[in-house]
Amino acid sequence: MHPLPEPASLPSLLLSSGGWRPEWGRTRAGGMSRAGGMRPPWNQERAPEERLPSATEPGRQWSMVRRMLTAGLLFSLLLGFSLLLVYIFRSCGPGPCMTPVCWDLLARYLASGNTSVAPCTDFFNFACGQAKGTDYSFQALAEENKKRLRRILEAPGSWHLGSGEEKAFQFYSSCMDTDAIEAAGAAPLRQVIEELGGWRISGNWTSLDFNRTLRLLMSQYGYFPFFRAYLRPRPTPPYTPVIQPARPRWMKCVEETGTFFEPTLATLFVREAFSPSTQSAAMELFTAIKNALVSRLRRIPWMDEKTRKEAQNRVTQLQVKMGAPEWALKPSLARQEYNDVGPCPCQLLISPQLLLSPLTRLSGRQSVHPGRSLTNPFLALIQLGPSYLQSFLSCVRSLRARIVQSFLQSFPYHRWQVSPWGVNAYYSIPDHVVVFPAGLLQPPFFHPGYPRAVNFGAAGSIMAHELLHIFYQLLLPGGCPACDTRALQGALLCLKHHYETIPLPNGTFFNGSRTFLENAADIGGLAIALQAYSKRLLWHRGETILPNLDLSPQQLFFRSYAQVMCREPGTQEPQDPHSPPTLRVHGPLSNTPAFARYFHCPHGALMNPSSRCQLW
């Protein structure tokens, strides 16, 4: 007998003999084979090769279906996520600012601009084509601040005033009372002249001669008593002198009240026009600008590493004064300026002889110590009335006393060189402090409710411009011996050539040798402000734009920068250290590649030149 073959080899054996087919071993419903007999015991367990086709085919099909379902699910998720992103970006994208301050700003922009001009051809006319006035933007802002002071001074009932503060309102009212001034005539002036020795015109002539009386009058009050006319050259050739037009009476009175009662008006102006939230927003803007400058200093090619670190340290150590001096933010300190009781700056005891010849007295026999009274004193208090002239002269004496005291006392803090309602920012080299008065951080340059593009483009570029004044010395010949002199000079020559190739409105060209420091600050300031704004857009949402202006946030940034420079062409003073207004717009903007990109300027257009300069 032959032994039974192994089950694994039996199928192959049967197939080779032709006597067996795989289906023969399959049972029907009754369990019998095709031959009618019972399945052999050794065929009840099939080999793996037999079971593979029937067992794995459904698994493969299910695996394919599962992969298709997974892919479909992932696709649906991606599609839904994409639609969600589109919805988010559409809903959170730049929407129009509909607040009253934004509508007012829109009206300003529409009134000054000329949108019929192509921005790539003449962006100055696009933004400032309708600007009028000798110094449109800054002068208009300065006049607006004076109007605000006028509203404050003409509504004393809306303020809780102390005795010293009331004097400011009384003086302003006296100045505006032209009927009383005309009724008094020359009598108040005659009284003053007689007290000083008299002139023949006063009716009480003494032995004192005319020149001595005039000298006494001018030394005590600092004013020339006769008719005075102010001449200024025409802003355009041939620069012939012309008499300045007279100011409105209210403006003269506001300016005089501000000069004599600055602490009082500073406190009231800041209280109304520069709230804590406005100050906080301005400081946030300045911090962003300062950080952008520190970051930009790392990439300046002409700086050596030591100079770079020193420059960054100077920026981080810089003090910033925003809005108003510390005393103006504290009403109790401001009241002491004109308090009739106790020591204060306006109550300095000072001798008339010192007023007559301060340089002689201070440098000669008389020694002066801060905080101590001077010999032969009189109390330099402000005494108002009964006439406007007497009030005015009393204020002059008090002001001169405070000026003298300021030279005799040392101050541990920076003395502001501008009134809080002024519009001029500045950098103080001795104190290493930069000052931005509250009067500058006003519409249309800054407002917490403005689109950020406006604040960064206008006020932000001004802040960056002032910060670059820290490094003026580096740009002068020999100012940075360790720097790459060749690279620095190349950047400066490129800048000079860049400005000289931009035509003025009359078709001529400008020699920028005298203004190259300010040109450098204009170009660098714009680049720093744009860098700070771009970072803001990257990390913050909720950007807005002005309604009905059809400008993107980036375009609005550049439009706001140009608005700061708006000024009627040909009205610039000959001694102005800045370039003409058209160059202050076209010079920096045409040197900025982002401007040409966002306004789609063709290559070779005025605002998209073939080459650009990199200084800062």
Automatic annotation (TrEMBL):
Q: What is the top-level taxon of the source organism?
A: Eukaryota
Positions with biased composition (Low complexity)? 30-39
Q: Which GO terms describe its molecular function?
A: metal ion binding; metalloendopeptidase activity
The cofactor(s) it depends on are: Zn(2+)
**UniProt entry keywords in alphabetical sequence:** Hydrolase, Membrane, Metal-binding, Metalloprotease, Protease, Transmembrane, Transmembrane helix, Zinc
A Pfam short name: Peptidase_M13_N
Residue ranges spanning the membrane: these are: 68-89
Its GO biological process annotations read: protein processing
- GO CC annotations, alphabetized: plasma membrane
Domain Peptidase M13 N-terminal residue range list: 119-242, 245-325
Domain (Peptidase M13 C-terminal) ranges: 424-615
Q: Where is this region: Disordered?
A: 30-57
Q: Which PANTHER family match?
A: KELL BLOOD GROUP GLYCOPROTEIN, ZINC METALLOPROTEASE FAMILY M13 NEPRILYSIN-RELATED
Q: What is this protein called?
A: Kell blood group glycoprotein isoform X13
In the UniProt record, the gene name given for this protein reads KEL
